Amino acid sequence: MVDVVGQYRRIKKEIDEAIHRVLDSGQFILGREVAEFEKAAAAYLGVKHAIGCASGTDALQVAMMALGIGPGDDVVTTPFTFVATTETIALLGARPVYADIDPRTFTIDPARLEKALTPRTKAIIPVHLYGQSADMDPIMEIAAKYGIPVIEDTAQAMGAEYKGRKVGGIGLMGAISFFPSKNLGAFGDAGMVVTNDDAVAEKVRMIIVHGSKVRYYHDILGVNSRLDTIQAAVLSVKLKYLDGWCRERRRAAARYTELFEGSGITVPFEAPYGRHVYHQYTIRVSRRQAIVDALVRKKIPHAIYYPIPLHLQAAFRRPEAGEGSFPEAEQACREVLSLPMHTELTDDQQSAIVSAVRDAAESRSAVPPKS
Ligand SMILES: *Cc1c(COP(=O)(O)O)cnc(C)c1O
After folding, report:
1. If you take atom 2 of ligand 1, which residue's CA is the nearest one?
2. H or E element: which one contains 264?
3. Residue 82 Cβ contacting ligand 1 at under 6 Å
4. What b/e sequence results for 282-296 when a residue is b if at least 16 CB atoms lie within 10 Å of its CB, and e otherwise?
5. With a 6 A CB cut-off, is 281 part of the ligand 1 pocket?
6. Beta 74-77 vs 121-125: how paired, if at all?
């Protein structure tokens, strides 16, 4: 699905030098490399504060901790996302509440969002899924109307734009992931919280180092979630290439879409409000199993993000939100299929992938083999 090694080889010299600089300095916790990457990331995103942390999951948790979210609170998000979004809400003792998605963009539907709010709602977490922004203007309007802070889950959308602005800095906070396969990927776990709010930034900075400003004086409840110094050095090198990589992803996506023309397969919808950076190229198909079987036979990588919506996951099921509660998310789970998407994809690979999908989708008599 991704080719992280191929990308590394292209910039190996620079990366190796950056890593060795950290090794030679002996500074493995925070220090110059982290501060430099935070500054560069803030400038890139057009935000005042960028605070590195240990993962995208931690970024979500720390952002909610900065708002004091806990037992008795509701947090509204989408049921069609990676588990981290819901998991962190639940870990803090709050209740995940869902609003169904817009089936074209797979992101939270603003019209349904307002109906999902409760008097206990303490945050709204839209997810910029697959590299495409949620429709932020109506979301921010609803949030302002009820005085509820917005945390943008920007794990899959570093570099994506909404009406000319980089996502992540539109809500009160943005939570970013640098998991290796993300658009800006580290060589291990890494994440970041971004905000334009000074007080929130100060709180997040304390929370990630055990709730302290002065070492061994702990003012608030915190965690250990620093951005690793070696990862920061790697990310500083890679950040310079991100815009070029986003362009390559967009080019590959346009080529896929061209190759699918006339096939009847639903290709990704690019909302006119933004710039999709294709963390995933995800199609919708009705006979998915037959296509998956054909891809397995041909050893073509593919993935289903995600097979089960969060409200139906065993860990998060609640009697009031059973099957049928969020029909758009449930249908998306039955139909989505993500194809290989990365910066090293060749035209030949794309042609072979699309041929395999088209052949399988078009052959009505295909009998899937027993696995
Ligand atoms: C990857 C991802 C996360 C979690 O990021 P990690 O760095 O893996 O902890 C959170 N939300 C979404 C939507 C993601 O895709």
Report:
1. 155
2. none
3. yes
4. bbbbeebebbbbbbe
5. no
6. parallel
Cα of 355 from ligand 1 centre, angstroms: 31
> What's the CA-to-centroid distance between 269 and ligand 1, angstroms?
22
Ligand 1 neighbour 185 (Cβ under 6 A): no
- The whole-number average pLDDT for the span 92-111 is 98
Which pLDDT belongs to residue 1? 86
Q: What is the DSSP letter of 209?
A: B
What is the whole-number distance in angstroms between the Cα of residue 57 and the centre of ligand 1? 6
Confidence label for 368 from pLDDT (cuts 50, 70 and 90): low
Backbone angles phi, psi at 239, to 5 degrees: -55, -35
Q: How far is the CA of 150 from the centre of ligand 1 (A)?
A: 17
CB 178 within 8 A of CB 191: yes
pLDDT in tens, 1-52: 888 898 999 999 999 999 999 999 999 999 999 999 999 999 999 999 999 9
How far is 41 from 36, CA to CA, in rounded Å? 9
Residue 367 confidence (pLDDT) above 80: no
> What atom of ligand 1 comes closest to residue 279's alpha carbon?
15
Instruction: Assess contact for 99 and 126: CB atoms under 8 A.
Output: no
pLDDT value of residue 124: 98
Q: Is the shortest distance between the CB of 55 and ligand 1 below 6 Å?
A: yes
Q: Reduce the DSSP state of residue 256 to 3 states and report it.
A: helix
127 lines ligand 1 (CB under 6 A): yes
Kindly state if the Cβ of 75 falls inside 6 Å of ligand 1. no
Which domains does the chain show, CATH number per domain?
Answer: 4-100+108-239 (3.40.640.10), 242-366 (3.90.1150.10)
| Tokens standing for residue 369 | 């083999």
